[in-house]
């Protein structure tokens, strides 16, 4: 067998994409105001989270913005101990999927909770936070 | 199928990506009694081209290296089911009468980048914008969420998950191409470090380099090449589900697996009870338990019981992943779909499989279940001899 330690280093390539967010601007600006927005189709009344700027159900390209609030029920969760490269500076974090009263589901970090206290079926509140890098985000916190 | 080949799986920094593909293409062509020049079309499955490894158009690179330039070429991407997407493409080309001889190649080279980068690239294989960008999801995490939901609803335990790893390592130890060729104990699996709770190191398939190749021929071409034991495609089923996990119905199974298997059973005119050997997509231990249920090998919520009763071992009702599965044989993402076909073809031929893990056959019906992403894509293929 050939030697496994004889390798060539490729030319490095660093990529960072400029992702257009103009059509979901209300959502990203809403986070800064402490609000989490979903979209609702004015024609077929379907609600979308993450917010969609177009309705895949009836193909309407203009959507209404509605605020998501209230309690969610946690349907699944995990705690990530082995982080990807761009999250290496983070302590282990908990991610959960919660179903809102309106029926839409949200995937977000679940904060202010110990792993041993988290259960499928527990109630949590959707709110906004500022990440350590200064970027706003949305999170679940255990319901009081 | 008239020819199959599979490279040794593992950390293969002794070969580059084209040389790795050659290790599967050469035995597949020799097995088929064909030459590279006979191949009219090649579909290559690879998920990480230009990310995990340096080549962005691997179909052209592999074709040149293996003497296939001039054939029709395409690369197929369906995340971890890219190999099955390539197989389906090559099958469609032959079944549609476009070509008489086609090649499907599955290929991945995952050890050229460091582990956090490899974890990052796989973690982005969901909906990057909504589930990775702010939340740093990883692949173990996506399946760990299914584990917490399945445990809560059906009482599946961490021991049940570990039993999948113990079983698949047992068969990996009998497979000379497997990345891990040693048995493990339940205790060792349970005591390994947590990756994404409740999944531990031994609940996760490894990072793997590998390739597999399959030569597909029309009935006339198979006769012309005097294929001695052709294996036939009984039917292929396919399906998909939402990119965002938050848009799924539930987290106790994969809807794409259930839908794809229904289509495959219908196309082949069989039911789950007719399957005598299967390879299922055990990228994580919970995935194998959900697969038993989604494919109809047992009722919903009864996957752990089927495993505990030994029904998925050689000698059981439906032996599953007796090549070691993704867990122990290894999971070179784009290669896995073709490697499943390689294993089942050898099982159906009863000619070369290591005797200790040959499944006894009466009907000669096998099934391959290959999931891309977290149920984002699914292909189910029924094979017959």
List keywords for this structure.
heterodimer, A: 144 residues, mainly beta, OB fold (Dihydrolipoamide Acetyltransferase, E2P), 2 domains, five-stranded mixed β-barrel, three-stranded antiparallel sheet, 1 helix, 8 strands, 6% helix, 35% strand, globular, B: 385 residues, alpha/beta, Peroxisomal Thiolase, Chain A, domain 1, five-stranded mixed sheet, four-stranded mixed sheet, 14 helices, 17% strand
Q: What is the straight-line distance between the termini of chain A?
A: 62 Å
Which chains have the largest interface?
A-B, 41 and 48 residues
CATH architectural name of the largest domain in chain A: Beta Barrel
- Could you name the CATH class of the largest domain in chain B? Alpha Beta
Task: Write the element-wise H/E pattern of chain A from the N-terminal end onward.
Answer: HEEEEEEEE
Q: What low-confidence regions of chain A span 5 or more consecutive residues with pLDDT below 50?
A: none
What kind of oligomer do you see? heterodimer
Care to give the gist of this entry?
By secondary structure, chain A is mainly beta. Chain A has one helix at 25-32; strands spanning 36-40, 47-48, 64-68, 71-80, 93-100, 105-110, 123-130, 136-142. Chain B has 14 helices and eleven strands.
